[in-house]
């Protein structure tokens, strides 16, 4: 049995959550409707059916508070879940802080991040609907790895359009995806109309996430037995990630502690939402005054600098219009090392909670983030992903504030993944070559000019 003051708080497999928590049932602020990209009228299930199975479309719009996790999904999750909750005692000591620092460690999954939590569920529902192949895009490779692994477990083919520059610069990410059985295509490719069009204009194109999305979506839309899968942003993705927070609630109870502040990094919002939403439910239903902090890179400051507005989910303007914080769908962020945080928009659920004042956003540049990453690695022995290190920076700053105030604050953050495939980024940091890029106001104004006009 785990005791309150242990360093690693494990749950037995029998405590693996039986249901996902759907925050749509408890949202304290309205969620604006999703609109069709061409007509700007609310979309219906039929509009999404070429890309997603009906079970996921239903989850996308559901207001049921709890949605049961199918047994075959739980069986796969059991390979690494429940994930440990850790007390960062050595970091607390290094900071000489009265704060207690806990983190939920998602790097124990086979892909090294939280992303398999949703990949497994998405592949399961597609398989149930008779889908033969899934297509997707990947930038840094985390999502491609997670989907490839999940497809392998359920016997579904997987094709990953990988941004060409990453394909060339990160060969081991590609090998990892191929190890789990997926086909990896450098994007832009000659396999789709979208790819051929780009290559005709620019044969040397190094690709971009928006282009890879267009290729994956095009292939799925043209075949009845091929669907598309997205690794963040959508309501059903955040839903699947709530296993993180449900486990953490139980583990904090074993530790006889409760967080004053819950912290996560945000790209599209899925690992933050996954940890935060069950604690948000407690705040809304029972009233503990927990604060919630979402951490983003200053180079892609969606929540801290963008407007709350309708925009397209993809760069081509083919994906639905959703109301979210956005830097404009044409925005191409600087090439920072936290590749998973380079998205122009944000989950509509998290956007609405930020707009309502329930979640506080903060932004950091790369150097303070890597300072925190290395301090954490040297204290705790875990090398964090650059994305996750944004959350660590904010957790350390909370602990230092608590020290200043002489306050026994309890901090919980999500360590969304390990950084074993990110050592080139650490190298750049050690050589002093990181650039502390923050988005300049004129670049922001330029990107926002392409925001669509939508009557509300
Ligand atoms: C993809 C990724 C993220 C960012 O995505 P979210 O949907 O915002 O969670 C963060 N951390 C890691 C390790 C990732 O792979």
Shape designation? globular
Q: Output the structural class.
A: alpha/beta
Ligands present: pyridoxal-5'-phosphate
Spatial strand arrangement across the major sheet? 1-4-5-15-10-11-14
- Residue windows where pLDDT falls under 50 for at least 5 positions: none
> Which CATH class of the domain at 11-15 and 70-112 and 236-448 is shown?
Alpha Beta
Assigned CATH architecture of the domain at 11-15 and 70-112 and 236-448: 3-Layer(aba) Sandwich
Average pLDDT for all residues: 95
**Fraction in helix:** 40-55%
Structural descriptors:
alpha/beta, Rossmann fold, seven-stranded mixed beta sheet, four-stranded parallel beta sheet, 19 helices, binds pyridoxal-5'-phosphate
Would you kindly provide a written description of the structure presented here, covering whatever features stand out?
With 456 residues, the protein is of the alpha/beta class. It has a domain at 11-15 and 70-112 and 236-448: Rossmann fold, CATH 3.40.50. The protein is 41% helix and 16% strand. The protein contains 19 helices and 15 strands. The chain has helices at residues 45-48, 54-61, 71-77, 89-95, 116-128, 142-154, 164-169, 171-179, 193-201, 209-221, 235-240, 243-254, 270-286, 302-305, 348-355, 366-380, 386-405, 423-430, 441-448; strands spanning 8-9, 19-21, 66-68, 85-87, 100-105, 133-138, 157-163, 183-187, 226-228, 261-265, 291-297, 308-312, 321-325, 360-364, 410-415. Strands 1-4-5-15-10-11-14 form a 7-stranded mixed sheet, with helices on both faces. A 4-stranded parallel sheet has the order 8-7-6-9, with helices on both faces. Strands 2-3 form a two-stranded antiparallel sheet. The longest helix is centred in the C-terminal third of the chain and has 20 residues, at 386-405. The model has no long low-confidence stretch (mean pLDDT 95). Residues 113, 115, 142, 232, 265-271, 340-341, 385, 387-388, 416-417 line the site of pyridoxal-5'-phosphate (PLP).
